[in-house]
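Recap quiz, item 2
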Amino acid sequence: KQTILVVGLGRFGVSVCEKLAELGQHVIAVDIDKQRVEEVADVVEYCAQLDATDEDLLVKVGAREADIAVVAIGNNIEASILATAILKGLNIPKVIARAQTSIHGRVLSRVGAHKVVFPERDAGKNIAETLVNPWLSAFSAVPGGGVLVGEIEASAGMVGKSLMELEFRKTYNCIVLLFDRKGSRFLPRPDSVIQEGDKLLVAGTGEDIAQMMEKKD
Amino acid sequence: KQTILVVGLGRFGVSVCEKLAELGQHVIAVDIDKQRVEEVADVVEYCAQLDATDEDLLVKVGAREADIAVVAIGNNIEASILATAILKGLNIPKVIARAQTSIHGRVLSRVGAHKVVFPERDAGKNIAETLVNPWLSAFSAVPGGGVLVGEIEASAGMVGKSLMELEFRKTYNCIVLLFDRKGSRFLPRPDSVIQEGDKLLVAGTGEDIAQMMEKKD
Ligand SMILES: Nc1ncnc2c1ncn2[C@@H]1O[C@H](COP(=O)(O)OP(=O)(O)OP(=O)(O)O)[C@@H](O)[C@H]1O
Ligand SMILES: Nc1ncnc2c1ncn2[C@@H]1O[C@H](COP(=O)(O)OP(=O)(O)OP(=O)(O)O)[C@@H](O)[C@H]1O
């Protein structure tokens, strides 16, 4: 059970507080706006109204004892940078900060944020990608490698054939990881014959998956 | 190549415009704030300053011809709802809208949004989950099934043993999908012997993955 200080109670900050509280963590929530502080009073263990650019006030609410700090201030770039620098200076082991722009993000890293997040920018990219490639919403990127994994429906051309016959890996340069047949999952073998209604968990690079999605139907 | 109307050029809206333009789509970007419109002028094909609660102005910029509309207005809940209702009324095939709260989201669906997004709320949940379970940032949820997929490092106890010897699937109730050995990937067989430095792509439910991460080291 960790102690996490959340600075800034906009949509992002409140969501962090709610999920952390749900996961049984000790949350200290602060905001300069009294009404926003009151709105999380039932959710977190401790909350206080304060200006997070005031180091003494942060120390007063226990910032030094926090395992993690999340700076969720949004539009006030100056306050976000100052608060991050202060919390880093208090030697909190992990400081997460949220940025408005790339430049803001770079400055946050420089003043001590161990991790910078871009909620709106990342959501915008994801939405745009799924609008252009709707099948993408059935896939996830495996962190770290450019590999996509997701479930596809067996196409008419696949039904009744084995993976070996289809030369699946050779044809699509993607790997079938798992079969999902009527809810029961099993590992594929070269001689596994695809049945109608089968779902296949496949993995491959973004480009190979894109080509497969075009070719398979 | 689709025509996409983006209403509201905050961080989320601008990110949608940039990624869509990068993907070669025809983007019409509008905002009530002249400065925000000017900031995307180099990125999109057409932009205009207008109040999106004015149906005539939306028609003037070609809203009827759009394949998709994205309502990216943030803080002005009333304008977000009205604009969504208007665009739905213009029979745009796909209307995506962004919501501040669950209630806002429900109203947007009711007035015609085919899909509602919560950028800050989703980012807040994800960050909170990775703060509590740091290994989660190495995993992705495969859409639709509660299955997590991600790469793990072979632990000391695994090295030198085959998957069969380890009774991997029985012990952890997770499936090894792929081996990544020095950058070269291959499908595992029961007699595949794990070597030091191997990365294993594993899949399982959230609970099973969590237990495996505790047990394996
Ligand atoms: N100096 C400060 N000290 C403490 N809290 C602050 C300070 N400056 C701003 N905040 C708070 O940070 C919160 C989030 O900032 P703001 O609402 O500007 O951003 P936002 O981008 O709209 O947030 P979100 O997107 O998460 O809803 C607000 O509740 C605001 O009161
Ligand atoms: N009636 C309207 N017509 C057109 N644009 C509007 C209207 N109302 C608000 N907007 C624009 O929507 C944009 C996004 O809204 P706002 O900045 O309030 O939200 P935000 O949540 O801070 O955005 P983001 O989180 O994406 O940065 C702003 O640029 C604003 O000018």
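Residues A 120; B 7-13, 31-33, 36, 51-53, 72-76, 79 surround adenosine-5'-triphosphate (ligand 2) (CB under 6 Å).
The first strand of chain B starts at residue 3 and ends at 7.
End of item.
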